[in-house]
Amino acid sequence: MQEKLKQLKAILADVSHLDKTIKILSWDQQVYMPPGGAESRSEQLETLQRIKHDRFTSEETGKLLQELKPYTAKLDPDSDNARIIMMMSRRYEKKTKVPSEFVGELARVTAIAYQVWTQARAENNFSLFRPHLEKIVDMKRQYASFFAPYDHVYDPLLDEYEPGMKTAEVQAIFEPLRTQQVELIKAISDKPQVDDSFLFQDFDETRQWDFGVQVITQIGYNWEQGRQDKTVHPFTTDLGTGDIRITTRIDPKLFNSAFFSTVHECGHALYDQGIPKHLSDVSLNEELSLGIHESQSRMWENLVGRSLPFWRYFYPKLQKTFAAQLGKVKLEDFYKGINKVQPSFIRTEADEATYNLHIMLRLEIEIGLMEGSLQVKDLPKVWNDRMRAYLGVTPPNDAEGVLQDVHWSDGYLGYFPTYALGNLVAAQLWEKIEQDIPDMEDQITRGEFSTLLGWLREKIHKHSAKYFPQELLQRITGSKIDSAPYIHYLRNKFGQIYNL
């Protein structure tokens, strides 16, 4: 059996290498590639995705997995080998239902769609992007059909990003959360608003970049195994052990944009940098729960990066960097300013209290598109109507509305719920962290993050995708995803800021 396991891992290594090569091409497309390269890049990605799919779904892979299944009974069920065989068997069952021609065609379609989306967003022209999104939605419905019968047509899409979770399960988590968040926002709106005008000034781009680099270096980002670049929509990509890259977007008129994007993407990268090579090499991290992944980025961005202890340490350094803009702004006022609650158009710049409503809006739209109750042509109006209903604001144009996110151009329907789930998981994990590290707040005040990062490495990062998301959270906290810690966190934090 050891020889068969070795053969399986060799195939999985091939799949991993192909996946990383695909990601390099995708990273280049979003960072450096000239617009004219879209068609050629789409053809390259189509070919590689098809080869990767064929390599994994080969009869040889299936035969090895079938022969290795009885072997798992002799292994510790929590061992790497047992989990690799189990997770890869699950993936094999899924992937063999999808034709390789479909996989290649989707890669080609989305590569072109991404390039068109960047143009449509820049020109505020949804009609330019519409036919490409219609094609993607049609293909995603076709993808779901490969897994019929299902409980809900959205289930196969959600499972790509949250292994094992169902649409009904996510809706059950979100439904009570929506009501409580709306109540909190209403209570805040009845209070005097905090002043954040000092954040909207001229902030030199180079100094913004350098300050962000200084902060994430101290947090623990390993520059020997990563880099940062600029892009239209910030993202993190895993190009293999020792090469985890992040991107950011800088607004010279707003401090928050680049800084919190940088810290957010650093949170993702710290997770990827903590995954052991032997698990990455067998492509196990392709099964990662993006809700768990998002919990890491949201934790560093919000629970750490927007906390008062964090800025007790970093604010004097920021004031020195931007003395003219912030030299006379008190720490308490700065802290309140970066945590101002105000419904906004842009999801990535939304405050913690309103952020999840952006996600719920997108989830409802995606479900509608998959069910056929919504049509792509109606999205600008539907988007604006739901923004008014959920957040009380109407985007002035489609670039700040329906075109603002990159995900649909990449074919990532089913992805958005992971952001809200990540918020809930981050708060749930933080309660456990504070129990295990009682002086966590004091450590952050001193600019010490190694204990926190070490805890995350041990409890989460080192396992890669050995466990399903709910299973991992149960092991760490004793409970599956629970919105109560998140609501408690929001009420406590904003209760103090707004004197609720």
Characteristics:
2 domains, three-stranded mixed beta sheet, mainly alpha, 500 residues, Neurolysin, domain 3
Task: Walk me through the topology.
Elements: H1 2-31, H2 38-56, H3 59-68, H4 80-95, H5 100-123, H6 126-145, H7 155-161, H8 167-189, H9 205-219, E1 226-230, E2 236-238, E3 244-248, H10 255-273, H11 277-280, H12 290-304, H13 308-321, H14 323-326, H15 331-338, H16 352-371, H17 379-391, H18 417-436, H19 440-445, H20 450-459, H21 469-477, H22 484-498
Parallel strand pairs: 1-3
Antiparallel strand pairs: 2-3
Brief summary of the model shown:
The protein is mainly α and 500 residues long.
Describe the overall structure.
Helix content is 64%, strand content 3%. With 500 residues, it is mainly α. Strands 1-3-2 form a 3-stranded mixed β-sheet, with helices on both faces. A hairpin with a 5-residue loop joins strand 2 and strand 3. The protein is globular, with a radius of gyration of 22 Å.
